[in-house]
Amino acid sequence: MARPAPTTGAGAVDTTAIPHPRWRLPVVGDVVGTSRRTPVQDSMRLGRGLGPIFTRKFLDLEIVFVAGGALTAELADETRFAKHLAPGVEVLRGIGGDGLFTAYNHEPNWRAAHDVLVPGFTRGAMRGYHRTMVEVTARLVAKWDRGGEVDVSADMTTLTLETIGRVGFGYSFESFERSTAHPFVSAMLGSLRYAQRRNFTFPLVRALFGGRAEERYRRDLAHLAEVVDEVVRARRGEGGGGSDLLGLMLDSGALDEVNIRNQVITFLIAGHETTSGALSFALHYLSRHPEVAERARAEVDAVWGAAEVPEFEQVARLRYVRRVLDEALRLWPTAPAYAREARHDTVLGGRYPVEAGQWVLVLLPLVHRDPEVWPSPESFDPDRFAPDRVRARPAHVYKPFGTGERACIGRQFAIHEATLALGTLLRRYDLVASPDYRLRVAEALTLKPEGFTLTPRRR
Ligand code: MNH
């Protein structure tokens, strides 16, 4: 007997041959034991043991998750697949508009902005940002020097937001000087929270009870636009120019006002949350693995020597610190998923037909734990990223920065910023965590450790 046609949302794949979690309920789907606060970790739990591909059903939407390295590598083939705006990203269109992260592949502004902004992310550009990054890191150090317990995720968020604001746009939130959040930051977090929550609320509930939240969202968006427009006006007043991201956009003449505003908001958001989480996870693992921290610190001492602050090249030479960061991003890729759609009808893994336009979600925390690729996947071992071991692995199985031409434009930026910060903190402090802390992962737009504190002690 033919099986009934699966109830798939528009654009989803024929899922008849793909495993799904055991306790699938009629109508609502795979929701037993899940929470809307932890969709990624729920998917990890439900997907474990189901193999390299599985589905989860949410009401009438059935999403295909890819959890294996080989399928992830196949999806990296740009001739067959392209970026897709997954529902969780599409809800951010209201905030990022046609900015790089939320642009559709077919929007001409994606290519236009990409071409304008790529020069802002070259090695030479990073060299130009280095001094400002060092200055912002010094603010963090001044705070930690005052002693006492610190909320790691909060401090890393302050560091990375301040860095992208100053480096990218010459704008300081003065976050280290404030006792309460900058209004721009509140508006940013508020609008993100609203956009994501709306993703999970039924339209009727929203219509009945969502009025005030909706109004607040509009106000938050208006405030974001106002602040950005003010920054742009100020720069224009100085005659434009400057070698930062804003300067590149204003000087190019290729981007319209609204698009520039969308890019600034996009960069302020995409340019800090993920790096903040990556730093926080790395610090967590360093605090849990004293032998790793010792080795990393010895490297910093050897490479930086007595220099008060490192030179640009001295950051790139922290090879082992970099491996710590890579390994933290393997276990907790802070942008935990990305979606890929078929460019034309094709067959995934030799078995699963995917029609043009249909899409699947790459679930990185499981891909990065694929036992076919990663021996003892749960253990924290930075030496997995030693050059010979990287070479021994297949390509495209480690993807914390996404893939293809829509991969992260800020990768080098994030790596330089995070390696500099980790080196600075390792050299200056013993990172003492509470022995009782068990890693809890909070999910918002990105992943970060929750409730993780350190008591840094000057060496
Ligand atoms: Mn980032 C795209 C991860 C840091 C700006 N980033 C992506 C994607 C991933 C990602 C994954 C692809 C998403 C998709 O396919 O839908 N990004 C990260 C991680 C870090 C990070 C894990 C830090 C660690 N990103 C940064 C920084 C910036 C930045 C820093 C800016 C300074 N990222 C972007 C932008 C895009 C992006 C912009 C969209 C690029 C495009 O589509 O053209």
TrEMBL record:
Transmembrane segments: none
Any one GO molecular-function label of the UniProt entry: oxidoreductase activity, acting on paired donors, with incorporation or reduction of molecular oxygen, reduced flavin or flavoprotein as one donor, and incorporation of one atom of oxygen
Metal-binding listed as a keyword: yes
EC number: 1.14.14.1
Signal peptide region: none
Keyword Heme included in the entry's annotation: yes
UniProt entry keywords in alphabetical sequence: Heme, Iron, Metal-binding, Monooxygenase, Oxidoreductase
InterPro entries, per database record: Cyt_P450, Cyt_P450_CS, Cyt_P450_E_grp-I, Cyt_P450_sf, Cytochrome_P450_Monoox
Top-rank taxon, per record: Bacteria
Gene3D superfamilies the record matches: Cytochrome P450 (1.10.630.10)
Family to which the UniProt record says this protein belongs: Belongs to the cytochrome P450 family.
Name by which UniProt lists this protein: Unspecific monooxygenase
